[in-house]
Amino acid sequence: MNKNIVAAAASLLLGAGGIALAQDASVEDSIAAYREMLADDNPAELWEIKGREFWSKKRGPKNASLEACNLGLGSGMVKGAFAQLPRYFADAGRVQDLEMRLVSCMIDLQGLSRAEAEKNHFSTDNDASDIEALVAWIASESKGAVIAVPQTHPKEKEAYAIGEKLFHFRTGPYDFACSTCHSTSGTRIRLQVLPNLTEPAEAKPIFATWPAYRVSQGTVRSMENRITDCLRQQRMPLADYGADVITDLTVYMGVQAAGGQMAAPGLKR
To answer: Is the pTM of this model over 0.90?
Structure first.
C-alpha cells in the first residue's frame, strides 16, 4: 500500500480521535455546568420536606411515629447516621441499609406488616414513594459527614466480602458484571460517565451523592433503586426489595468510598 495513503489515513484517524476527545470534554463540561446551575435549587428539597414530615407522622396500629427509630447512632438520632450505613443491627440480626432499617422500624414501632411497610417503596409516575422521601431527608441530615461504613462486626465484614465478589461476578445472557462498566477509568456510555468504583477517589463522589434527584425521571431515587436497575440491565432476575445482594453491594461501595464527604441528595441525569 502506498506510504502516502497510509500516512494520510493515520492523520485522519488521529484528527478524528482529537475531535472525539474534544467533544467528550465539551459534553462533560456542559453536564458539569448544568449540575452546578441547578445545585442550589435541587428539586430533592421537596422530597426532603415530605420525608421530614413523614418521620414524625403517627401511623399504624400503634399510632406511633418513627422518631424513636434507631438508625445506628441511638434512638431518634438522625444527624450523621446515613454516612455510617449500611451496618449491623443486633435487633434485626443482619446488616441493613437505610431503607431496610426504616422498614424494620415501621414494623416494630408502628405495628405495620412488612407488606404495608414496603408499600410503594419506589416512586412511580402516579405515586411518589414515602420511603424514598424519608431517605432523601435522612441523607440530607448527613451532608458534610465523613463516609464511614463500619467494618467491625463479622457480619459487616462478610457483607463487604460478598459484595466485592458480586461486584466482579459475571452472569446473565450478556455475561455482565458490575465491574464490566465500573472498573475502568475514563469510560462512558453515550452521555453517561462510568466511574471506576474500584478506585476510592472515583467511588467517593458517587457514593456521597446517592440518593439523588434524577432529572430524566423527575423524582428522587435511592441507592436501592439504582442497584436494582443495574441488575435489571444485567438481565438478572428482579431482586426483592431489600435483598441481601443489594445490601452487600452497597456495603462494598460504601467501604470503597470511606473518607469521602456526604453530599446527598445529589443531582443526576
So the answer is: no
